[in-house]
Design a protein that fits this description.
- It contains no helices and 13 strands.
- By secondary structure, it is an all-beta fold.
- Strand 11 and strand 12 form a beta hairpin.
- The protein is flat.
- It starts with about 20 loop residues before the first strand and ends with a strand.
Length: about 210
C-alpha cells in the first residue's frame, strides 16, 4: 500500500499527561535536518516512569519519506534516566529498512542495536564528494554499541552489494569493525570485478 503523505501543516498539539494519566497527540516534529515528520501515539505516566507507544510515524530528511514498518507499534520507556526502545522500525522509499532497539543511558552503560537492510546508496550519492556522485548499490549494516557513551565498545559489520561508481563496473565489499579500549579491529574483503580484489585486516589505534 502507498505510504501516507506527511502532514506539513502545523497541527494541534497533544495534551500533557498528568500523573498516572494518559496523553494522545498528533503533530509535526521539527529538527535541523528534518523537512517534515509525523508522529501518532500516546503516552502514559506512572510516577517518574513514562511509557510512550508510537502507533504510526514518518519522517522526511531530504532522502524521501521514511515510514513505520509493518511490525508491532514502537514502545519507548523513560525511567530513572534510561530510555528503552523497542520496535523502532522505518522503511525507506525503495524498500530498505532502518531499525533501532535497546537501552540508552546518557550517564551510565548503554546497549543499543541498529540495523540497516537494503539501503540504496544512490539516495545519498548527491551528498557525497564528486568522485562518488554516481555511486549505486545496496548497504547492509549491523551496529552494536555497549557501554558508556563517552567510551563505548562498538561493533559494525555488513556488506555493500551490487555496487558501482560508474554505472557499469560492479563491486562487492564485506566489512567488520570492532572498537574497544582505543583499538579498532578491521576486516574488509572486497571483489572489485575487473579491478581485482581488496583485503584489509589488522588493528588500528584509534583513541576517539
Amino acid at each position: 500500500p502507498a505510504a501516507p503523505a506527511l502532514d506539513r501543516a502545523p497541527a494541534a498539539g497533544g495534551r500533557d499527561s498528568d500523573a498516572d494519566g494518559a496523553a494522545d497527540g498528533v503533530g509535526p516534529v521539527p529538527g535541523r535536518d528534518v523537512r517534515a515528520a509525523r508522529v501518532d501515539g500516546h503516552a502514559v505516566r506512572h510516577g517518574d516512569r513514562i511509557e510512550i507507544t508510537l502507533d504510526d510515524y514518518a519522517v522526511d530528511v531530504g532522502l524521501g519519506e521514511y515510514v513505520r514498518g509493518d511490525g508491532a507499534p514502537t514502545r519507548v520507556v523513560i525511567h530513572g534516566g534510561v530510555i528503552d526502545l523497542e520496535g523502532l522500525d522505518l522503511r525507506t522509499p525503495d524498500g530498505g529498512e532502518l531499525a533501532l532497539a535497546g537501552a540508552l543511558h546518557p550517564r551510565g552503560s548503554s546497549d543499543l542495536h541498529f540495523v540497516i537492510r537494503d539501503f540504496p546508496l544512490a539516495s545519498i550519492a548527491p551528498r557525497l564528494p564528486e568522485g562518488l556522485a554516481r555511486l549505486t548499490g545496496s548497504l547492509d549494516a549491523d551496529v552494536t554499541l555497549r557501554g558508556p557513551l563517552s567510551d563505548p565498545d562498538l561493533t559494525v559489520f555488513g556488506e555493500i552489494t551490487d555496487a558501482s561508481l560508474d554505472g557499469t563496473r560492479g563491486f562487492h565489499v564485506g566489512y567488520r569493525f570492532e572498537y574497544a579500549d582505543g583499538t579498532l579491529a578491521t576486516l574488509v574483503d572486497g571483489d572489485l570485478g575487473t579491478r581485482g580484489g581488496l583485503h584489509i585486516e589488522g588493528p588500528i589505534r584509534a583513541p576517539f
